[in-house]
Task: inverse folding
C-alpha cells in the first residue's frame, strides 16, 4: 500500500532581493496513517517551508516549487488553488507554533471553530456549534459550554493550543501537520499537548508530521525521524536508530546539546558551534562542513548523497565519513568524550588512506 | 464600564472649563481689535466707546467677565449675545449646525467609500501599478491645502465661474428639508474637496495596517483552514486592520462637527466653521467663545465615544 503522503525530490526556492533562497533542496519523505514522522532541525533548515508547501501556502510569484507531493494518489503541486483550498483544513490540517498569535484575537473561539467546520461541511450553524463543544471536550478543555463563547485571550497558552488542535481536527483530517506545537508552551504543558496528540492519533488514525527543533520532544512520540539541515534531509531512520546509533555529525550535535535524564550529572552539554548557513550562498561540498568537528579537506568539495547506512536497513545518512569511523566517534561521544578529543580518530583514520586525490567515499568506496 | 464613562464625563467638564478660560485669556492678551471701537462707527468719540464698553460689560475685570459668562452657561445654558448681531450665540450655533452636520456626514461617507476600497486593493496588490498610482495620488491629495483645492475645484467645475460648469458653486447652500435635490447638488463639491485629503489618509492608513495584519499568524491559520482568499482578506484581515481606523474616524468626525472653517468659508456654507471665522473677523468674543466651546465639546465627546466603541470592537480591551 502506498503511503498517505509521499513527498519526492521536493525543492522550494524563493527569489528575494538578495538572491535565490534554496529553502528546501530536494527532500523526500512519506507519512503513513496512524504513524508519526518527526522532522527535526534548527530554524532556517527548511522544515516549516516543507509543511507550508504541502498545504499550498507558499505559492506566490516569487516561489519556485518542483518535485512531487502525492497525497492519496494526487500530486498536490499540480492542483489548482481552489482544489488545494478544499483539501486544506479538511484532509490536511495544520497547527502552529504560537497559539496566541495563531488564533484571531477578535473572534470568539466558538466562531472560529464553527467557521472551520462550515467551510468544509454543509451543516447548520447550531449543529456546527454543537460539534465545536464536542471538539473542545475532546481536546480536554473543561467547561466547554462556557468556554466556546470566550475569546482566545481568555485562555492560557496550553488551552489555546488545545483550541488550535480542536480546530485542526474539526473535519477529521487524514494528515495533521504540527509545526513546533509545543515550543511556545511551558515544559509541563508541552508533555500534556504531546500526550493529547498521541491519544487523538490512536483514536482517529491520523498521520502526524511533527516539526520541531527539539529532539527531546520527539523521543517518546516519533515513529520515524528525519533530520534536516540547510534544506536537506541529512539523516533519516526510526526513532531507535536515530537515538541509539545516530550517523550524522549534525545529529550528534543535536543529541549532545540537550540534557537527558540518563546522562551523568557532571556531563557537559556541547553546543553545535557556528551558525546555520545562509540558504542563498550555501557552503560548498557537504553543507555541514563549516560546522563539522570531523571535517576533512575533501568534504569541502564533495556533496554527500543520502545513502543507506551499511548494515542498518531503513537508516539513511548523508555523511562522507566511513561508517565504521562514525560508529567509533558516536561511541566516544556517548561515553562523554568531547568532539575535540574525538577529532584525533578522524586524523588517525585519515593516515591509513591517501588524503589527497583519495576516492570520494574514502575506504568505504575503495573496498 | 458605567463608572468609567462617568469618570470620563467629569473630565469632559473640567476640560471644557479649561478650554473656555484659555480662549478668554487669548482674546484679551492678544487683542486683534477692541470690540467697542468696532461697534462705535466711523468717527467714534471716547464717551461713545466707553458707553459701548459698559453696555457690553467690557469695563469689568476679566475674571468677573469670565465668572458671569460661565455662570450663564451653567445656570441657563446661555452662551451670551453676539456683539455684532445682538443675537443669542446659542441660537446662532444651533441654526448653523445643520449645514455643518450635512457637510461632515456627506464627506465622511464619500471618503470612506473612496478611501477604504483603495486601501484594501492597494494592500493586497501591494507594489503593483495600481498600488503605486493610488498611493502617489494619495500623497498629492494629502499635501494639497484644502482651501487651494476648494478654489481650484470652483474654477474648474462650478456652474457660475467654472470652466466646465457641472456642479453648484459657492454660496448655493440649501437646507435639506427645504429642497433635498438642491441640498445634495450644493454639497457635491464641498464633500469631494473635504473628503479628498481624508480619503487619501484613510487609504494609506488602511493599506499599511492591512499589509501588516496579512503577515500575522492568524491569517496563516485562516488560510490553513481552507477559507477562500476573499474571506481571509475581508473577514480576518480587514476586520483587524480597520479597528484602529475606527478610532481615527471618531476623532475626525468630532473635529469636523466643530466646523470645517476653511471649506465652509471658501464655499460660503453657513455652518459653525464660517460662524467662527466671522466671529474672529469681528472680534466678537461671545461667538468665538461659543464656537470654540462647541468644537471642544464635540472633540472630547468623540474621544469618549471612540474609547467606548473600541472596547466593543477589540474584545481584549476592558475598562475599569
Result:
Amino acid at each position: 500500500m502506498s503511503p498517505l503522503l509521499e513527498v519526492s525530490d521536493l525543492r522550494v526556492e524563493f527569489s528575494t532581493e538578495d538572491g535565490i533562497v534554496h529553502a528546501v533542496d530536494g527532500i523526500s519523505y512519506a507519512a503513513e496513517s496512524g504513524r508519526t514522522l518527526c522532522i527535526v532541525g534548527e530554524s532556517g533548515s527548511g522544515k516549516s517551508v516543507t509543511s507550508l508547501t504541502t498545504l499550498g501556502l507558499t505559492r506566490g510569484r516569487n516561489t519556485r516549487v518542483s518535485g512531487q507531493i502525492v497525497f492519496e494518489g494526487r500530486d498536490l503541486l499540480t492542483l489548482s488553488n481552489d482544489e488545494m483550498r478544499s483539501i486544506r483544513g479538511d484532509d490536511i490540517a495544520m497547527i502552529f507554533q504560537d497559539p496566541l498569535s495563531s488564533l484571531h484575537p477578535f473572534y470568539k473561539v466558538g466562531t472560529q471553530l464553527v467557521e472551520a467546520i462550515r467551510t468544509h461541511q454543509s451543516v447548520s450553524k447550531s449543529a456546527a456549534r454543537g460539534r465545536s463543544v464536542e471538539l473542545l471536550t475532546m481536546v480536554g478543555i473543561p467547561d466547554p459550554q462556557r468556554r466556546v463563547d470566550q475569546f482566545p485571550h481568555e485562555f492560557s497558552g496550553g488551552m489555546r493550543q488545545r483550541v488550535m488542535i480542536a480546530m485542526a481536527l474539526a473535519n477529521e483530517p487524514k494528515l495533521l501537520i504540527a509545526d513546533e506545537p509545543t515550543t511556545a508552551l511551558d515544559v509541563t504543558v508541552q508533555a500534556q499537548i504531546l500526550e493529547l496528540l498521541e491519544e487523538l492519533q490512536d483514536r482517529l488514525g491520523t498521520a502526524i508530521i511533527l516539526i520541531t527543533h527539539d529532539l527531546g520532544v520527539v523521543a517518546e512520540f516519533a515513529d520515524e525521524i528525519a533530520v534536516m539541515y540547510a534544506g536537506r534531509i541529512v539523516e533519516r531512520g526510526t526513532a531507535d536508530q536515530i537515538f541509539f546509533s545516530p550517523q550524522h555529525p549534525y545529529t550528534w550535535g543535536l543529541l549532545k546539546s540537550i540534557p537527558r535524564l540518563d546522562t551523568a550529572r557532571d556531563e557537559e552539554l556541547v553546543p553545535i558551534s557556528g551558525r546555520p548557513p545562509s540558504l542563498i550562498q550555501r557552503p560548498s561540498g557537504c553543507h555541514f562542513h563549516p560546522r563539522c568537528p570531523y571535517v576533512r579537506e575533501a568534504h569541502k568539495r564533495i556533496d554527500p548523497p543520502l545513502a543507506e547506512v551499511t548494515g542498518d536497513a531503513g537508516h539513511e545518512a548523508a555523511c562522507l565519513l566511513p561508517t565504521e569511523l562514525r560508529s567509533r566517534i558516536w561511541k566516544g561521544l556517548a561515553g562523554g568524550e568531547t568532539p575535540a578529543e574525538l577529532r584525533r580518530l578522524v586524523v588517525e583514520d585519515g593516515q591509513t588512506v591517501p588524503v589527497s586525490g583519495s576516492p570520494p567515499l574514502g575506504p568505504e568506496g575503495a573496498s | 464600564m458605567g463608572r468609567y464613562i462617568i469618570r470620563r464625563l467629569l473630565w469632559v467638564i473640567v476640560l471644557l472649563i479649561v478650554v473656555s478660560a484659555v480662549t478668554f485669556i487669548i482674546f484679551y492678551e492678544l487683542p486683534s481689535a477692541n470690540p467697542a471701537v468696532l461697534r462705535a462707527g466711523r468717527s467714534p468719540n471716547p464717551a461713545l466707546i466707553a458707553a459701548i464698553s459698559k453696555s457690553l460689560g467690557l469695563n469689568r475685570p476679566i475674571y468677573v467677565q469670565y465668572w458671569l459668562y460661565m455662570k450663564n452657561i451653567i445656570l441657563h445654558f446661555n452662551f451670551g449675545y453676539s456683539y455684532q448681531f445682538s443675537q443669542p450665540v446659542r441660537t446662532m450655533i444651533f441654526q448653523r449646525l445643520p449645514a455643518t452636520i450635512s457637510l461632515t456626514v456627506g464627506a465622511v461617507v464619500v471618503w470612506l467609500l473612496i478611501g477604504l476600497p483603495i486601501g484594501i486593493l492597494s494592500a493586497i496588490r501591494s507594489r503593483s501599478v495600481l498600488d503605486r498610482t493610488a498611493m502617489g495620488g494619495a500623497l498629492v491629495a494629502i499635501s494639497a491645502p484644502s482651501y487651494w483645492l476648494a478654489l481650484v475645484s470652483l474654477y474648474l467645475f462650478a456652474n457660475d465661474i467654472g470652466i466646465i460648469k457641472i456642479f453648484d458653486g459657492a454660496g448655493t447652500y440649501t437646507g435639506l428639508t427645504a429642497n433635498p435635490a438642491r441640498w445634495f447638488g450644493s454639497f457635491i463639491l464641498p464633500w469631494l474637496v473635504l473628503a479628498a485629503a481624508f480619503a487619501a489618509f484613510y487609504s494609506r492608513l488602511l493599506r499599511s495596517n492591512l499589509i501588516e495584519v496579512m503577515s500575522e499568524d492568524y491569517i496563516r491559520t485562516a488560510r490553513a483552514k481552507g477559507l477562500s482568499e476573499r474571506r481571509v482578506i475581508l473577514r480576518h484581515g480587514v476586520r483587524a486592520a480597520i479597528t484602529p481606523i475606527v478610532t481615527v474616524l471618531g476623532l475626525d468626525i468630532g473635529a469636523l462637527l466643530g466646523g470645517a472653517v476653511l471649506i465652509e468659508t471658501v464655499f460660503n456654507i453657513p455652518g459653525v466653521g464660517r460662524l467662527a471665522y466671522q466671529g474672529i473677523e469681528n472680534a466678537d468674543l461671545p461667538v468665538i467663545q461659543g464656537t470654540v466651546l462647541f468644537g471642544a465639546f464635540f472633540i472630547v465627546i468623540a474621544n469618549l465615544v471612540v474609547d467606548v466603541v473600541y472596547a466593543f470592537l477589540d474584545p481584549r480591551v476592558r475598562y475599569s
